[in-house]
């Protein structure tokens, strides 16, 4: 890649990407275009513009992608009830395809020769960014500085910053010891004290959720409305996708909902301990399963549950733009056309309870399900033949075993 003239860099304005910006200019003697995405991380992004300008960047992209992120990535994922290894709600994983897509699009818009990111060679994000980019532009050039340079420690990064006059915000005393990533779906914590899987996270680590023990003594109730599998309003108030997830985060965080501490299997082969806050996502997952419980046919619901682990693994490993994920999405979306109605939830000290669900498209028939006089809606005597037919193979095997067992015992 010696002929690189222009590179689009996924840029946050922090230490790592600021150093990468300078390193790209110096190593490749190229022009750098910066791209900063607002995915709801809750940080002021305009400082990234002034930092980029101070480093002679002429083309600066800062984009509000919150509604696109939630409507086109988060909601489709939740239609599948996706959860990785039984616990992780894929908050970081689902953000990477959108960033990769915009990197590729901006490269095309600006005539850039390559894109670049700040993901390390040990993590999942390098895979997610690059698989996404290659799926959208198979001939794209990708520069991953962490796999090329020899700046392997924080000290070497700081020395490089000092040498090249890159401003570094020193926050000793208040600086978090964790590596954090945030967007509208979650905030993640890795590294630092969490590298010991026996050590409990400090209570000061959590940013979005109150300690469940200190959450309000009065429960919070809310009604979440669904249309075609997606949430569209809270307590009768229609909201945009980003507004709705923001409000669920607020309600969940206030009640201590959504904390998870897990050890997960990274795609690159190692185990990694991470802590996550996903208050809105935890509420949404519980509510979506509740509305599906009365609107989905049993066979469809069970098949969805069988497909979900594969779907979640595809997202975790970076295959959002793969044909197999798109195939699964088509089936999942087809199942959601009757997933309409309301779910009532109770939030209390870290817990989420379903207290009600209703839908005009419900399959729940009280006349059939009742324990009272069913007036002929269901003939209980029919169950005898159903049971005997289903027991036929079990009875046949048991009979064989008893005969064979008797012969063997008498030998």
Structure description:
This protein has 411 residues and is α/β, with parallel strands linked by helices. The chain has two domains: 6-163, Rossmann fold (3-Layer(aba) Sandwich), CATH 3.40.50.620; 180-296 and 339-363, Argininosuccinate synthetase, chain A, domain 2, CATH 3.90.1260.10. The chain contains twelve helices and 14 strands. It has helices at residues 15-28, 46-54, 66-79, 96-110, 125-136, 154-163, 241-254, 279-295, 298-317, 323-335, 366-369, 382-410; strands at residues 6-10, 31-38, 60-64, 114-116, 141-143, 179-182, 187-190, 220-227, 230-234, 237-238, 259-265, 271-277, 341-348, 351-358. The chain has a five-stranded parallel β-sheet with strand order 3-2-1-4-5, with helices on both faces. Strands 10-9-8-13-14 form a five-stranded antiparallel β-sheet. A hairpin with a 2-residue loop joins β9 (230-234) and β10 (237-238). α3 (66-79) crosses α7 (241-254), α7 (241-254) packs across α8 and α9 packs antiparallel against α10 (323-335). It starts with 5 loop residues before the first strand and ends with a helix. The model has no long low-confidence stretch (mean pLDDT 93).
């Amino acid at each position: 890649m010696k002929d690189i003239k222009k590179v689009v860099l996924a840029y946050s304005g922090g230490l790592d990407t600021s150093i990468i910006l300078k390193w790209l200019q110096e190593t490749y003697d190229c022009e750098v275009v910066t791209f900063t995405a607002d995915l709801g991380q809750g940080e002021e992004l305009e400082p990234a513009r002034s930092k980029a300008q101070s480093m002679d960047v002429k083309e600066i992209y800062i984009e509000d992608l919150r509604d696109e992120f939630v409507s086109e990535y988060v909601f489709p994922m939740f239609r599948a009830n996706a959860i990785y290894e039984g616990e992780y709600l894929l908050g970081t994983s689902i953000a990477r395809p959108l960033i990769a897509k915009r990197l590729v699009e901006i490269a095309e818009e600006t005539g850039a020769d390559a894109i670049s990111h700040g993901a390390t060679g040990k993590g999942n994000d390098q895979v997610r960014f690059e698989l996404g980019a290659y799926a959208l532009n198979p001939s794209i050039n990708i520069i991953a500085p962490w796999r090329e340079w020899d700046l392997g420690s924080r000290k070497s990064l700081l020395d490089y910053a000092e040498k090249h006059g890159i401003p570094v915000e020193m926050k000793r005393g208040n600086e978090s010891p964790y590596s954090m990533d945030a967007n509208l779906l979650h905030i993640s914590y890795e590294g630092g004290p969490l590298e010991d899987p026996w050590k409990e996270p400090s209570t000061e680590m959590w940013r979005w959720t109150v300690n469940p023990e200190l959450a309000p003594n009065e429960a919070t109730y809310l009604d979440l409305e669904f249309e075609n599998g997606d949430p569209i309003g809270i307590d009768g108030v229609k909201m945009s996708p980003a507004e709705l997830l923001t409000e669920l985060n607020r309600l969940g965080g206030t009640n201590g909902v959504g904390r998870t501490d897990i050890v997960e299997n990274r795609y690159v082969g190692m185990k990694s301990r991470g802590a996550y806050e996903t208050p809105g996502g935890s509420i949404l997952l519980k509510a979506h399963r509740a509305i599906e419980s009365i609107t989905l046919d049993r066979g469809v619901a069970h098949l969805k549950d069988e497909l979900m682990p594969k779907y979640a693994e595809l997202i975790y490993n970076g295959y959002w733009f793969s044909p197999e994920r798109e195939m699964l999405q088509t089936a999942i979306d087809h199942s959601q056309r009757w997933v309409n109605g309301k779910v009532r939830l109770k939030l209390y000290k870290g817990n989420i309870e379903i207290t009600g669900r209703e839908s005009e498209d419900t399959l729940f028939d009280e006349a059939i399900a009742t324990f009272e006089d069913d007036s002929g809606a269901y003939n209980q005597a029919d169950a005898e033949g159903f049971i005997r037919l289903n027991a036929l193979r079990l009875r046949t095997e048991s009979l064989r075993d008893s005969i064979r067992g008797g012969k063997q015992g008498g030998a």
